[in-house]
Amino acid sequence: MLWRCVICLVFLTFSLKQLLSHINRMHSRSPDFRLLCGIDGCTEEYRVYNSFYHHVKRRHSQHLIESNRPGDGNHVGEQPQEENQGTHQQQDNIQPNQLPEDSSITNQQLCTPDTDEGQMDINQDGAATVQPDLTTQATAFVINARAKHRLSQKDMNDIVAGVQQYQSSLLDNLRGQMKQVLKNHSGSTSGHLQKEVMGIFDNFIDPFASVATTFRQNSVIKKQFSVVDAEEIPIARSICKTKRGGSKDFFIKDKVFHYVPLVKSLEQFLSHPRIWSMIDKGPQRCREGFFVDIVDGTLLKSHPLFSEIPNALQIVVYTDEIEICNPLGSFASKNKLLMVYYTLANINPKYRSKLAAIRLLALARSVDLRQCGVDVILNRIKEDMDALYHGVKMQTINGQKTVYGAMVSVCGDTLAQHELAGFKEGVGFAYSKCRHCECTFEDMQSHFNEDSFTKRTLKKHIRQTNEIEKANTDLLRNSLRTTYGINRRSKLVDMPAFDIIQQTPQDIMHVILEGIAPLEIKHVLNHLVQSGQIDLDSVNSAILGFPYSPLDVRDRPSPISVSTLMSNDGKLKQSSGQILVLLRILPFVLESLKANAYVHLIIELIEIVQIVFAPVLTIGTVSRLKSVIENHLKKWKELFPANSITPKQHYMVHLPSQIKSMGPMIRHVHAV
Predict the structure, then answer these.
(1) Is the Cα torsion angle 377, 499, 439, 510 positive or negative in sign?
(2) By 3-state DSSP, what share of the chain in percent is helix, strand and coil, each rounded to 5?
(3) Is the predicted pLDDT of residue 279 greater than 80, yes or no?
(4) What pLDDT is attached to residue 68?
(5) What pLDDT, on a 0 to 100 scale, did the predictor assign at position 69?
(6) Which of 195, 214, 313, 337 could lock onto 405 through a cystine, CB 3.0 to 4.6 A?
(7) CB 423 within 8 Å of CB 431
(8) 3-class DSSP assignment, residue 424
(9) CB of 305 within 8 A of CB of 389?
(10) Please, what's the b/e burial string for 415-432 (b: 16 or more CB within 10 A of its CB; e: otherwise)?
């Protein structure tokens, strides 16, 4: 019998056991998990996988008999190749809460059923893997519980003490039962056998003893999991005062940032066999005319390092700020942190966005960087980048190897990228508002093709930063900064083989889903409602009543209030995921207005989003994208002449060339 997963509608198998294994690994941890049994017409519905599994075991046990036909794994024509590759590697006797031998601690794997890389045993919350011995499993339990549930150290110690107490009681109970069994079956050898069996219980080593205290936990974690300690790098000093008794004392306090050494972090990362195998076999380029990953772009094909050493490490850096305190509270900006992460573009795209593949590189307080500048972090990163570019000897799973690497892109929202790259962070105050071309506000309103603008180049950028640095007066320096849209010469310019213009791609999530899409949807709906062509209540009813798929239901859009629709900002008060789902359903919501020019504007935007977020593109599709963006911006100016083209709308004209240079844009969003 052929079994199909009714949740993803992709997975096919001839074994019910393999189907249950697939549902357990891929869908059971979804917060919106819901499953209708459907076996033999059964109408039972479950929201917990374990309950569903035991239902199948009780009511439909006859189907659990292995029904795989001989040679099914070789009949590719009977099921899709990707599914075949995944199913023939699965174990047939996987039960709930039971993992394959090479699985991770939390069963949140970096692999999917359609992978030919095998199952990666990287933990979703870190890089730890479960070893056969009980001590490692106990350590893994402590790590996962503390990280997943955000437990304090005291709470974690109390839990470990409770587990040890329960474990001791369990052993005493088992010892008594075993002793009674041996007594009931006494014989000539019972004395010796009883002594041997009781010796096992008496000599049992408590696996939690090594993690019973905070010091022991930290020691075992560092020893077993090759933890890379962060460096504390001072960047400035400040004079602070403290009250001691009735007097006040002054003391000097260092302002520091924390940096995880890149070379050591990479060495630990490459010690994992699955990661090293992806690096070692080199890039998997697609055939000419297709774009699947960063390696298919023209940039890496002509790069001085990657053209000579194809399997060199492709380092993608991402930066963003996070707010620790309540963003509406009185300490909103005081404790904001700048986080710098990295990942490797050598990793298969299906694993690259997993938490285990994204690693912390640096952390600093934003208030300290306002005084010292972000270049203090880039200086330290540059030291490791220089060493990697010329080769560093690392201990890998296959012994000592000379590893090369370079930075391929710096990702983040516009504010973060401009801060790192030295451009004007608030583009509204700059004469040149784009980091890829030298467009003015007036040019933005009338030209919608990238070829109409003068492109920035690295050589010209360096010349402009030199002019700013050599300016004789502050007035001239500020004037040049405004004209060029540049604040300073960034340390990114000095990174080996790094082009600050080409290798800072636009973040399509921030540019489109948090900028262009809410703005245009809001204006279109506002016009349709005010002109009486549609009612806002009917739009909200359609949004609430739409039959969302299991993947989209968690990001279903919120109803749009009148105050939100009539406000002057370009926001809809929806998350980026909600905006993406809203774009998918809008053609159905506005189905009665198909011939409307404003609705056609939204249809064009949807086409742009589909192309830009596509994981695979052809050169013909990229050329079409350029044409669609140009026509879309022209139509926007025709329908809304009073509204200016915003910088984010202008950034769209550069997306086609960036795809040709660095592959699909989705690879730079899902890289983090």
Answers:
(1) negative
(2) 50, 15, 35
(3) yes
(4) 42
(5) 41
(6) 313
(7) no
(8) coil
(9) yes
(10) ebbbbbbbbbeebeebeb
Q: Which amino acid is at 434?
A: C
Cβ partners under 8 Å of residue 660, min gap 6 = 291, 297, 298, 619, 622
Q: Which residues of 489-498 are buried (b: 16+ CB within 10 A; e: fewer)?
A: bbbbbebbeb
- Token duo for residue 491: 């340390």
| CB-count exposure of residue 594 (10 Å: 0-12, 13-18, 19+) | exposed
CB distance 118 to 134 below 8 Å? no
The single residue listed with the structure tokens 């549930």 is 149
Which residue's structure tokens are 């329960």?
Answer: 166
Q: Tell me phi and psi for residue 533, to 5 degrees.
A: -80, -20
Cβ partners under 8 Å of residue 179, min gap 6? 194, 198
CA distance 50 to 539: 39
Residue at token pair 């198998």: 13
Q: Residue 550: which of 8, 4, 5, 1 has the closest Cα?
A: 8
Dist CA 654 CA 153 (whole Å): 49
pLDDT computed for residue 207 by the predictor = 78
Among residues 551, 502, 495, 528, the alpha carbon closest in space to that of 599 is found at: 528
Is the separation of the CB atoms in 362 and 381 below 8 Å? yes
| pLDDT on residue 429 | 75
Measured between alpha carbons, how far is residue 198 from residues 172, 183, 189 in Å?
11, 12, 14
Residue 552 confidence (pLDDT): 87
Res. 331: pLDDT tops 80: no
* Run of H or E residues at 146: helix 134-148
The pLDDT, as a whole number, for residue 604 is 93
Encoding tokens for residue 508?
């399509």
- Give the number of other Cβ atoms within 10 Å of residue 128's Cβ: 23
How far is it, in rounded angstroms, from Cα 205 to Cα 11?
A: 44
Q: What is the pTM of this model?
A: 0.72
**Partner residues linked to 437 by β-bridges:** 455
Pairing of strands 290-291, 247-259: unpaired
